């Protein structure tokens, strides 16, 4: 099994940390410095961290260099580069805000500039895995502190005073003894000539002096543009002479085009051309599926033209994929022993000797991301040069893949990153940008490839489908003495390597083998499952089925023993301790165990906090119920209480949600709240409706009418978010994804409390109506 | 030749009369603030005002709006300070922001029709507009704020 924890490492399995061996000097040589007032700095050594993170192990690691990220104009405007992709988490605001905090820049005089895809210059840009803040809090502080120090040095020289006597305060440098002041703009040219202080010698601000970090109420930088229609997403890019394309792709993964008749399409007003698109055999990572493109003067004409195409497909090896039959296969596999991944004590013997065994077999279907912005990209390929405009989570990876696909050098590819109209992992795969590049090359003109919602559902990279079977053995006092969890699901690695039947370490590390309960006999197993469609990352990934199964089982144990859910949960978590599962090379979200251990004190804390603030145990009206769940994911700890109301017709509503999150040191609590509020709604969507099914190899759902998501009238009425204040040296951890996993099991536990019905199969659908 | 008035400006079209207004706005008129989300009037991302009514431009043909006045997000207010836009910013509504033009146009239409909507009326009127990021609680708060004065 390969050690794979992010899309870049999966792309061909060839990426590793080799870049770290290249000296920064050679990387920076030849870089064009834009603008006359960029702070000049020698190449800096690697970051000296207060704590270690996995940032350095990402492809191209981290670049700590103010010359790359900060420039100061003579008018004092500070421009800070945002090198991660903005898909709604607020990262385009929060990372530059860290730099501004440390350099004492006034946020109202800061502009954010989006980096293009260039990881040699900016370091890793893969915006996934909820890792931007945890990997960049310290590097961004160091970049800001470097810039501040250079401005201070320049002012001290100008005044002929020791640098220790001056300090930067809110966009100017001050010499208190003489009362002199110089603005950042006035110092920019001189500061650019200063040498950069060594990273070890940098003085970071005392957190008690923070103006922005951890304070909240900083609006996102794109707020005004979003509310006025000026914000630019992938499809909003318009180039002179640009053509509009939609593509008919094989309806079955691994299918191929046999023949097509373009005549009727070519008669549609506005259609200019019909052409075949190169496809790659399945599995082929993010390479295009191929098909037939209709080129037109506008997207409407292209869609109408595509509807008129006559197409004949060979469905290939997955033509019989059927969700009903596949579910049975998964269930049967879950009832037999599988590859043992974690073994502590003897779960088999303990289950045999148990006073009572509770068995839960949980089913979680395929899910689609359905970001509001469907995949879309613009490409302009001229000779051996390519320029791309696209909403991609992985600009560096997109650059690599465009270069490989077109057979041109990587440095000839420019990837401009637009805003992303939602990502959720879908836009970590750049297939749509590759399609645009191929079409532009062939047409000799700029082209926009627009996916329709139907394309998004039919040709995406779906969340896996899984059966999670848990057997819990209880002694005569109701104490859990044995735990066997079998997880059966096709792996994301199947999209990269044919014949994959076991889940990858990063998947089993998401709530299966890292299960934190204090139980003497544990067995975590992974029976085989083969994929029949493209499986990909979906926000929270395998944590969704795992948290659903494990936390539902907690509810079932409470139910079987007649005890309170929260008390049952705390009893299972057990004593405050560091959990060290007996697993070889335990995957820990790419982070070192020392900085990011599995800490049950923190797990307990979020349970206790949400129980207190969320008034666990409060009286609720008839037909209402409370449910609780907790889960550690992306090295954060989150607990959720859901209140449901189920009426006599089985109609489900959610009057209130309370969530406590411990994400360590944080930057912008206002955005943390928005992520958690949104996660509750995404969690409710997947629990209530989320299901992609296959018949004859084809996805059966088409659009938002049959792949439903929660709308405002059924969304939680109140969502409260509580953030655990960090300890002084608590490393930052994930926010974007961890909110989703605990929601569904808290909801299901609440439904049980309200109705006495235990739901083990998602989505809920009409199960409450029966 | 079909003539329409968009954000106060006369525009004409002599192509396919069945072309959805959405694609005329985005691809022909260059007004990209109006978004494509589903193409089937299921998500509301493409909402514009036709005269004073909220309409899904993805299933409305350019011919259907011949001679009518269309307002898009770009034309809602000259400086972007319509009470709904101001409320959206005050409440920090957006996450990714993609659906928000449609949400704002829908909310503006609601308030023209019903200046003081109740909790339930807001939730009902806004339920044709999907936000996958899940900003609903803030959208509701912003509509309420816009209705009570920003």
Descriptive notes:
Chain A: This is Molybdopterin-dependent oxidoreductase. The complex is a heterodimer of chains A (770) and B (150). Chain A contains 21 helices and 28 strands. Chain A starts with 6 loop residues before the first helix and ends in a 15-residue tail after the last helix. Chain B has two domains: 2-74, Beta-grasp domain (Ubiquitin-like (UB roll)), CATH 3.10.20; 83-148, [2Fe-2S]-binding domain (DNA polymerase, domain 1). Chain B has five helices and five strands. Chain B is globular and about 45 Å long. At the A-B interface, helix 8, helix 10 and helix 20 of A face helix 1, helix 2, helix 3, helix 4 and helix 5 of B.
Elements of chain B, N to C (H/E): EEHEEEHHHH
Q: Strand order across the biggest sheet of chain B?
A: 2-1-5-3-4
Strand content of chain A: 15-25%
CATH topology of the largest domain in chain B: Ubiquitin-like (UB roll)
Average predicted local confidence, pLDDT of chain A? 93
> Share of helix among residues of chain A?
25-40%
**Helix run count of chain B:** 5
CATH superfamily of the largest domain in chain B, by name, is Beta-grasp domain
Low-confidence stretches of chain A: 10-49
Q: What fraction of residues of chain B sit in β-strands?
A: 5-15%
The CATH architecture term of the largest domain in chain A is 2-Layer Sandwich
How is the CATH topology of the largest domain in chain A named?
A: Aldehyde Oxidoreductase, domain 4
CATH class of the largest domain in chain B: Alpha Beta
CATH superfamily membership of the largest domain in chain A, which one? Aldehyde oxidase/xanthine dehydrogenase, molybdopterin binding domain
Distance N to C terminus of chain A:
44 Å
Radius of gyration of chain B: 15 Å
Determine the oligomeric state from the structure.
heterodimer
**Total domains of chain B:** 2
């Amino acid at each position: 099994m390969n050690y794979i924890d992010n899309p870049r490492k999966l792309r061909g399995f060839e990426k590793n940390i080799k870049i770290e061996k290249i000296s920064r000097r050679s990387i920076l040589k030849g870089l064009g410095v834009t603008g006359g007032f960029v702070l000049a700095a020698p190449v800096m050594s690697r970051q000296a961290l207060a704590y270690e993170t996995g940032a350095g192990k990402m492809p191209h690691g981290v670049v700590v260099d103010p010359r790359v990220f900060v420039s100061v104009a003579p008018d004092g405007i500070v421009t800070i580069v945002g090198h991660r992709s903005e898909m709604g988490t607020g990262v385009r605001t929060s990372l530059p805000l860290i730099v501004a905090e440390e350099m004492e820049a006034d946020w109202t005089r800061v502009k954010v500039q989006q980096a293009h895809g260039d990881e040699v210059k900016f370091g890793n840009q893969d915006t996934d895995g909820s890792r931007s803040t945890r990997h960049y809090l310290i590097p961004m502080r160091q970049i800001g502190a470097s810039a501040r120090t250079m401005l201070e040095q320049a002012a001290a020289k100008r005044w002929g005073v020791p640098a220790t006597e001056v300090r930067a305060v809110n966009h100017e440098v001050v010499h208190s003894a003489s009362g002199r002041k110089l603005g950042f703009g006035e110092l920019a040219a001189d500061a650019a000539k200063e040498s950069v202080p060594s990273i070890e010698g940098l003085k970071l601000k005392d957190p008690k002096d923070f103006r922005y970090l951890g304070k909240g109420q900083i609006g996102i930088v794109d707020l005004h543009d979003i509310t006025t229609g000026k914000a630019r997403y992938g499809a909003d890019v318009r180039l002179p002479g640009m053509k509009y394309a939609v593509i008919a792709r094989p309806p079955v993964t691994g299918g191929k085009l046999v023949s097509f008749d373009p005549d009727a399409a070519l008669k549609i007003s506005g259609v200019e051309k019909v052409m075949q698109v190169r496809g790659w055999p399945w599995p082929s990572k993010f390479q295009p599926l191929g098909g037939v493109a209709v080129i037109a003067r506008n997207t409407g004409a292209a869609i109408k033209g595509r509807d008129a195409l006559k197409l004949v497909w060979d469905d290939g090896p997955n033509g019989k994929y059927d969700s009903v039959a596949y579910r049975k296969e998964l269930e049967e596999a879950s009832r037999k022993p599988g590859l043992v991944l974690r073994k502590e004590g003897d779960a088999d013997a303990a289950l045999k000797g148990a006073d009572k065994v509770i068995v839960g077999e949980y089913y979680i279907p395929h899910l689609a991301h359905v970001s509001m912005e469907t995949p879309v990209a613009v490409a302009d390929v001229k000779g051996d040069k390519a320029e791309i405009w696209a909403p991609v989570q992985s600009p560096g990876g997109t650059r690599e893949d465009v270069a490989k696909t077109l057979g041109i050098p990587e440095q000839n590819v420019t990837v401009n990153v637009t805003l992303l109209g939602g990502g959720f992992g879908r836009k970590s795969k750049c297939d749509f940008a590759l399609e645009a590049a191929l079409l532009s090359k062939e047409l000799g003109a700029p082209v926009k490839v627009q996916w329709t919602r139907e394309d998004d559902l039919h040709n995406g990279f779906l969340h896996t489908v899984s059966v999670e079977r848990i057997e819990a053995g209880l002694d005569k006092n109701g104490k859990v003495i044995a735990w066997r969890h079998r997880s059966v699901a096709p792996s994301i690695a199947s999209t990269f390597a044919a014949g994959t039947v076991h889940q990858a370490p990063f998947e089993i590390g998401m709530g299966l083998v890292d299960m934190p309960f204090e139980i003497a006999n544990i067995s975590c197993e992974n029976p085989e499952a083969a994929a029949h469609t493209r499986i990909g990352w979906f926000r929270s990934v395998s944590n969704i089925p795992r948290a659903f199964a494990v936390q539902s089982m907690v509810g079932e144990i409470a139910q079987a023993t007649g005890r309170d859910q929260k008390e049952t949960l705390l009893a299972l978590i057990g004593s405050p301790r560091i959990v060290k599962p007996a697993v070889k090379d335990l995957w820990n979200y790419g982070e070192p165990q020392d900085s990011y251990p599995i800490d049950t004190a923190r797990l307990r804390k979020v349970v206790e906090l949400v129980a207190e603030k969320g008034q666990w145990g409060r009286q609720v009206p008839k037909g209402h119920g409370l449910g609780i769940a907790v889960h550690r994911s992306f090295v954060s700890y989150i607990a959720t209480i859901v209140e449901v109301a189920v009426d006599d017709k089985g109609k489900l509503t959610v009057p209130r949600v309370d969530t406590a999150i411990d994400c360590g040191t944080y930057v912008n609590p206002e955005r943390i709240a928005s992520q958690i509020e949104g996660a509750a709604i995404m969690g409710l969507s997947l629990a209530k409706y989320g299901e992609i099914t296959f018949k004859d190899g084809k996805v059966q759902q088409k659009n938002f009418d049959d792949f439903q998501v929660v709308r405002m009238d059924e969304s939680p009425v109140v969502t409260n978010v509580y953030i655990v204040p960090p300890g002084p040296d608590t490393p930052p951890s994930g926010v974007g994804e961890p909110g989703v996993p605990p929601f569904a099991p808290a909801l299901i536990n609440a439904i049980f409390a309200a109705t006495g019905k235990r739901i083990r199969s998602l989505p809920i659908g009409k199960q409450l109506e029966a | 030749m079909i003539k329409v008035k968009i954000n106060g400006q006369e525009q004409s079209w002599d192509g396919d009369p069945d072309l959805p207004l959405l694609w005329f706005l985005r691809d022909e008129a260059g007004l990209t603030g109006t978004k494509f989300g589903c193409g089937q009037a299921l998500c509301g991302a493409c909402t514009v005002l036709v005269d004073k009514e909220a309409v899904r431009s993805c299933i409305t043909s350019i011919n259907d709006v011949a001679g009518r006045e269309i307002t898009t997000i770009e034309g809602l207010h000259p400086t972007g300070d319509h009470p709904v836009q101001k409320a959206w910013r005050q409440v920090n509504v957006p996450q990714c922001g993609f659906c928000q033009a449609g949400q704002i146009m829908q909310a503006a239409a609601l308030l023209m029709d019903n200046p003081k909507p109740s909790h339930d009326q807001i939730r009902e009127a806004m339920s044709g507009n999907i936000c996958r990021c899940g900003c609903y609680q803030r959208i509701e708060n912003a509509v309420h704020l816009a209705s009570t004065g920003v």
